[in-house]
Design brief:
Arc Repressor Mutant, subunit A, WH_DNA-bd_sf (chains A, B), HTH-type transcriptional regulator NorG (chains A, B), Aspartate Aminotransferase, domain 2, 4-stranded antiparallel β-sheet, homodimer, 42% helix, Aspartate Aminotransferase, domain 1, alpha/beta
C-alpha cells in the first residue's frame, strides 16, 4: 500500500470512511483548503485526491460548493451466492462444448457486429503500440538475420531471461532454461495436458471456466470434471477433495488462480498452498493458467501457485496477449518434472516460435516502460469495470447480480429469475450487440442464466447505449416470461433519423436515460 | 523448356550430346567463335553457355585452348535400387522414434558442432533477409495497430490471397477462404492428422520419411505403416494398394509428392492421379505435404496432388521456412471437406497466428522479387547439390550410392556394405561433424546404412574438408568391420598447426586430396 502515491492513499482513507458510514451519502468532503491543512499536502495533491474519488464514482462535484459523497450504483447490486461445495460433481451432466461454440460463432457471424461484449480483451488503445513497433524495428536492425535464422526451440534467450527475472516477483525461482516459449497460453495448456494425460482421461476444472479450456479438453478427447468455484475465492478445495475421493481417475487439475475467467475470482494464498499440497499428495499434476495475474489491482501481482511447488508437480502457463499486446501470440510454460516431455511435444506440434516478436517483446519488457504500461492498463481497466458495473446496476432489472472482481477485463453477470442467456444473446444479436452467454462456460447447463461482459472498451457513448439497450432487452424478455422463448424480439435497425441527430442531443438523451 | 534463357537451352543441348556419347570425355567444345556462328548468338551468350557448363561440371577450361568435356564425378556413382513393392509392409517392425530422436539430440548437444550436415535447411545467405526486413518494417508503419489487434483466425487476408493466387500455378483452384494459416507445415500436419484420425489409428507413410512426421504420429498416439518408396518416383502405389487390401484399418495416407524428405523423389503426374483416385475410392483421407515443390529444378513447380482432388479428400499442407526464410514459422493448410474441423482444432490448439510476419511475407510474395528469389535459390541449391555429390563420389569409398534429386536441400546416401550410420554418426560427432543417420527416418531398422546430407551450405573449404573427412571416417569403419563397433575412432582435435597454415596451403592440400 505504501508504494501507492499519497493522493491515492488519502483517497482510500476517505473511501473507508464512506464504507464504515463515517461519511454518508450527500455529506460534503472537506474543502480543498481543509484537506491541505488536515494532511499537510499541496493544492495539487488535494485536487488529485478529489478528482480520483470523483472518477471512481465516490463523490460528485457541485459548482462552487465542493465535492459531495455519493454511493456508486454498483454497490447497490447484490453479490452472487457461493456454490455448494459438499456435493460431488456429476460428470453425467456433460453435454459437450464444440457444438455450442460452433453455433455461437456461426450465429455471431450472421450480422456485422456493432458492439462486442463477448470477448475478453482490452481495446487496442490500452496497449503500447508505438513502443512495441519501435522495439520490433530496432530488433530487425540489430539482428539482420532475425528472419533468416530459426530461433531456438526453447525461445529467444533474452526474452526467457526477462520472463525468468519477472517470475521472481511472484515467488517462482526459475532459470531461463526452465521456460519454453509457446504460441500463446492456449498452446501451453495443450502441451501441459498432452504431457500429463491421455485421451479418455478425466481432468478437473473450475466451474464455470473459459470455453477455450473446455474446447482443448474436448479436442484432445479428455473429459472435464467441473468443480464448484467461488466467485470470490476461486476453486473450492473442499469440492476438489471430495471429487478426488469420489472418482479415482482424475489425471490433472487445471486452475486460473488469479482473475479466473469468467468469474474474476482470486484464490487466497492459503488456498493456493492447500491446493498445491493436495495435488502433490495425490500425485495429480496441477496446471496453473496464470494469464491474468498482472491485471490484479495491486502494485505487484499475487504469488503464483507454482511458488508453493516443491517437487515439480505444478505446470505454470502464462501469456502476453491480454497484458502486453493482443496482436502477439506469445505464451510460455514452466513444466516442472514434465519439461522434457513438453519440449518434445512442442517440437512435434509447432517447432520453435518466430524470433522477431519474442525479441521485440523482450526488449520492451526489460525496460521500466513495461511496468508503467501495466500500471496504466490496470488503472484504465479498473475505471472501465466500475463504469460498466455502474451501468449494469442502473440499466439491468432488479435481481441482477454481479461480483466486482479485483482486476481484469470482464464482469460475470447473473440474470434475474434464471432468464436464459441464449435468449438474451439472440435478441441482442438482432441489434448487432454480442454478449457471451453463460452456456459457453460449462459442459453442463448450470450457467445458462449468466452473461460475461467485456470491460476492455473505454467507456463512452456507444458502450453506455449498448448496456442500456441490453438492460431493456433483458427486461422485455422477463416480462414475456419463459413461454415466449421462440418468438423473436422486434428488431430495431439503427434508425437513420437517430444517427442524424447531433451528438449533443444524443448525449443528453443518454444521460437522462442513465439517470432514470 | 522454352522459358529457359537461350544459353541454358543450348547448354542442355550439349549436355545431351555428352550423355549420348556424341561428345566424349576430353573432346573439345566448339570455340566461342564457332558457337556464335553455329547458333547465331552473341559473344556474351556463347560465354554464358560455356561458363554454365563449366560451373555444372560438364566442361573444364584449359588456358588459351578452350573448353574440354569432362564427366562430373557424380555421374560415376551408382544409383540406388528400387524398393520391393510386392510385399505388404510389416507393422511388427515398429521400434518407435522418440527415443531415437531424443538420443540423437542429446548426443549432438554434447559437443559444440563445427559442421552440421544433419539439418535440411538452406544457409541464411540464400534467403532475402533485407527485402523481408523492409517488408516487415513497412507493415509496422502502414498498420500501426498490427501488434495490438489480433489477426484473423484464418490468417492475414492479403497473405491468404497471395497463397490462393500462387496455388493456381500448381493446378489448385482455391479461394483465400479455403486456406488457414498455421505455425509451419508441422502444425498443418498435426491438424490434418487430428482432423481425420484418432489415437490408436494407423496412418500410411512413405518409407523412409522425415522423422518430424514419425514424431507427430507417435505423439498423437497413431501408428505409422511404412510403405515402400522409390528414390525416383516416390510412394509405391502398388505397395499402398497391397497394404490397403491387407490391412483394413488405414485411416489416412501422408505423402511428400515433390522432393520427398529424405529421398528427394518426385512423383510423376500419373502416379499422383492414381494415388488421389485410390484414396478417394477407399474413402481414405490423403494428406499432401507440399513444403518443397518450389525447390524443384523447373521454372514452375509441379502440379499439386490436390489438383486431382474432386471431392475434397486431399488435405494440402505447405510452408515458407524452407523456401522463403528459415526464421519464419508460416505454414498453411487447405483441408477440403475437413475445413471446419481443422479450423476448430487450430483455434483450440494455438488460436490465430501473429499478423506481422504474415503480412510482411505477403507483401514480399506479391512482388516479382519473390519469384526472382526462388530462381536464385534453386540455382544455388542445384550447384551445391552437384558439388556435394561430386565430393561424395570422390571422397566416399566404392559401393556408396546416391540418387541426385531434381531439386531440394539434401542428398540421401547409401553406405557401402550396409555400414551402420550410427557408427558413422558417433565417429563424425567426435570431430564435431554432425550427420543425420538413416535410423531417424523409419520406425524400423531398414535404413540404418543410410545418411542424409544437407546441401544447404554454400560449397566452400569447410564443407569440402568435412565431406573428405566423412569419407575417411567411413573408410576406416569399413576396414575395421562390424566387430569393432564399440571401439571409438581416434579423435583428431583441430590441430593448431594446421589452423595456422596459410589459407593457400590449405586450399592446395584440399584440392590434391580431392583429386585423389
Amino acid at each position: 500500500m505504501d508504494s501507492l502515491p499519497l493522493y491515492r492513499q488519502l483517497a482510500a482513507h476517505y473511501v473507508d470512511a464512506i464504507h464504515t458510514g463515517s461519511l454518508k451519502q450527500g455529506d460534503k468532503l472537506p474543502s480543498l483548503r481543509s484537506l491541505m491543512r488536515l494532511h499537510g499536502i499541496s493544492l495539487s495533491t488535494a485536487l488529485q485526491l478529489c478528482r480520483t474519488m470523483e472518477s471512481d464514482g465516490w463523490v460528485e462535484a457541485r459548482d462552487r460548493s465542493g465535492y459531495f459523497v455519493r454511493r456508486p450504483r454498483r454497490l447497490a447490486i447484490a453479490p452472487m451466492e457461493e456454490p455448494p461445495a459438499g456435493v460431488p460433481p456429476d460428470p453425467a451432466q456433460y453435454v459437450g462444448i464444440h457444438a455450442k461454440v460452433s453455433d455461437f460463432v456461426a450465429r455471431r457471424r450472421q450480422l456485422p457486429e456493432k458492439l462486442n461484449f463477448s470477448i475478453a480483451r482490452g481495446a487496442p488503445e490500452l496497449y503500447p503500440a508505438e513502443a512495441l513497433r519501435n522495439a520490433m524495428t530496432r530488433m530487425l536492425r540489430q539482428q539482420p538475420d532475425m528472419l533468416t535464422v530459426a530461433a531456438p526451440l526453447k525461445g529467444h534467450r533474452q526474452f526467457r531471461e526477462v520472463l525468468a527475472q519477472r517470475s521472481l516477483r511472484v515467488g517462482m525461482a526459475i532459470s531461463p532454461e526452465d521456460i519454453l516459449v509457446t504460441n500463446g497460453c492456449i498452446e501451453a495448456l495443450n502441451l501441459a495436458l498432452r504431457a500429463v494425460a491421455q485421451p479418455g482421461d478425466t481432468v478437473a476444472v473450475e466451474s464455470p471456466t473459459f470455453y477455450g479450456l473446455l474446447q482443448v479438453l474436448e479436442s484432445l478427447g479428455m473429459r472435464a470434471l467441473e468443480i464448484p468455484t467461488s466467485p470470490q475465492t476461486g476453486l473450492s478445495i473442499e469440492a476438489l477433495e471430495l471429487a478426488i475421493r469420489t472418482y479415482d481417475n482424475i489425471k490433472a487439475v487445471v486452475v486460473v488462480p488469479h482473475l479466473q475467467n469468467p468469474l474474476g475470482s482470486v484464490m487466497p494464498d492459503a488456498h493456493k498452498a492447500r491446493l498445491a499440497q493436495l495435488c502433490e499428495r495425490h500425485g495429480i499434476p496441477l496446471i496453473e493458467d496464470d494469464t491474468y495475474s498482472e491485471l490484479v489491482d495491486a502494485p505487484t501481482p499475487p504469488r503464483a501457485l507454482k511458488s508453493w511447488d516443491a517437487g515439480g508437480n505444478v505446470i505454470h502457463c502464462a501469456s502476453l496477449h491480454k497484458i502486453l499486446a493482443p496482436g502477439l501470440r506469445l505464451g510460455w510454460i514452466t513444466a516442472g518434472r514434465w519439461h522434457a516431455r513438453v519440449e518434445m511435444l512442442k517440437y512435434a506440434q509447432t517447432r520453435n516460435n518466430e524470433g522477431l516478436s519474442q525479441s521485440g517483446a523482450g526488449l520492451f519488457m526489460a525496460t521500466g516502460a513495461y511496468d508503467r504500461h501495466l500500471r496504466h492498463l490496470r488503472t484504465c481497466l479498473k475505471t472501465q469495470r466500475e463504469q460498466t458495473a455502474d451501468a449494469i446496476a442502473g440499466y439491468f432489472p432488479a435481481g441482477t447480480r454481479i461480483n466486482l472482481p479485483p482486476g481484469g477485463l470482464q464482469l460475470w453477470v447473473e440474470l434475474p429469475e434464471r432468464l436464459s442467456s441464449s435468449r438474451v444473446f439472440d435478441a441482442a444479436l438482432a441489434e448487432r450487440i454480442v454478449v457471451a452467454p453463460g452456456t459457453l462456460f460449462s459442459n453442463s447447463s448450470r450457467f445458462d442464466h449468466y452473461l460475461r461482459i467485456n470491460c476492455g472498451w473505454p467507456y463512452g457513448e456507444a458502450v453506455d447505449t449498448g448496456l442500456r439497450r441490453l438492460g431493456q432487452i433483458i427486461e422485455t424478455l422477463m416480462n414475456r416470461g419463459a413461454g415466449a422463448a421462440a418468438a423473436p424480439l422486434p428488431v430495431r435497425p439503427a434508425s437513420p433519423a437517430a444517427a442524424a441527430r447531433p451528438p449533443e442531443a444524443r448525449r443528453i438523451q443518454s444521460s437522462s436515460a442513465r439517470a432514470a
